[in-house]
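HOLO CASE FILE
Compound: protoporphyrin IX containing FE
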Amino acid sequence: MEDITAVPTSWSVQFVAALVFLYVLLKVFKRVRYTGGKRPPGPPSLPLIGHFHHLLFGLPHHSLAKIAEKYGPIVWLELGALNVVVVTSSDVAREVLKTQDHIFASRPPGIMVDMVFKKAQDLIWSPFNDHYRLARKMFTTELLSQKRMDSFQDLRRQMTFRTLRTAFEEGHTNRYINFPDLVENQFLSLTTQMLFRMDGHAQNNVLLEIIHDLVSTGWFVIEEFFPLLKPLDLSGQGRRLKNIGERYFELMDSIIDNRLKENSNSKSNTEEDLLDVLLATSTFSRVQVKLLLLDIILAGAETSSDTIVWGISQLLRHPNILERLQSELDDVIGTERLVEEADLNNLEYLQAVVKETLRLHPVVALGVPHYSTEATKVAGYDIPANTRVMLNLYAIGRDPKVWENPLKFDPSRFLNSPVDVRGHHYEILPFGAGRRKCPGMNLGLVSVAYNLAQLVHASAHRRRRTHGRKPSEVRALLLTSLAKPPPEVSAPEA
Ligand code: HEM
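Model generated. Tokens follow.
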């Protein structure tokens, strides 16, 4: 009898073969159409999802670092319908952020950018256009200028003391402290105070809730990669982002209305905050003012607090390094007073600890995506216009071709070394480089160095002074030392 399974089997083999042939044809066609030349190498991809399966497990910067080990410092990925280039070496980063910065200084569009940032009317997500230039100038010359940062020095000091006080009080009663939460709250409160003097206000808590919701919803909306699915919003992320955007705008409207009312009252005599600065200019619409403020909250708070948490964890894991830092602080500051921001430039080892922390733990591990505005060549490969470019800052800082013993936490590698973290040395780029370099870098560096120094110095000092004393005496001592007014100094160029 004829084998009835034979026919369908051969059909299905032919069918699958035809599909594979069509797929290969499509890939070849796509390659020629998109780049008109040689694309960077990349791992095997699957139909429809492209390379997504390579990023399903683990942290994306870890998976991308592994891919780069195999395929080299510039890799081409297709994530659904989007083309992404991933850069993983200082040489290629220099080409993107310096030699061809004018081509890569834009940002990609996206669902989150549309829903929350009203089609990129902020700074972080703005394409490289006239609005961007105005907003960037506002950040560098006004909102984050050295003068403005100096004016918030006392606030930074008070906020750090608040954290120290809580940590010491809780620690003294042997209660568990959630240090990351403590520092994160410190920086969120500091930021909202700089923006609109709102500490302890009920609106502050509502704002913090909105920010938490936004961060936990995630920047990358899955439908972005599969545009046909966009209207269906299967992930629900679109709806959530829309709702978060509306809540944020409603809250900010009431804050701004109150402020305008207060400002029209001639008796109001409070210090200028960043909302006042933005309202005083007619350059930006109300929507833009709200979004520029949102940028500062999102980019400024968790970046500094996460870096401090990494720094402290590394110091706790390396008692010899902690001890060396303590002795530098004792030598330079002594035991009779607390560290001030003006001391930071005299603390060479502390600066090395900060750099080493940022080398191993750049908290924006994949940077913020860049976007090519015209077709070009990078490292000999053709990159089409409208390609997203991600820089794996995490893997660049750990590149064994550049760094000796790259995984070792060793601040002394930065002693007597010209290498810094400010975007001039492409082997370590925690703040990016070029036109899009982080405008909050000085503030971030001062905040991280000051908090690490204060925590390490004050805790060593406290151990010495409180040895054998009663809890009530410890509390009195602590409160007296923290209540001392700061000396009249201005923040240094860190
Ligand atoms: C340790 C602290 C910080 C780190 C590690 C950090 C890192 C970064 C990185 C990697 C970028 C992307 C650069 C690029 O696109 O190539 C960035 C952008 C940005 N950062 Fe920071 N940042 C920190 C603190 C701050 C602070 C304190 C602020 C403001 C208060 C801030 C505001 C911004 C803004 C507005 C951008 C977007 C700039 C643009 O698109 O032109 N950052 N930051």
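CASE NOTES: The radius of gyration is 26 Å. The first strand starts at residue 74 and ends at 79.
CLOSED: yes
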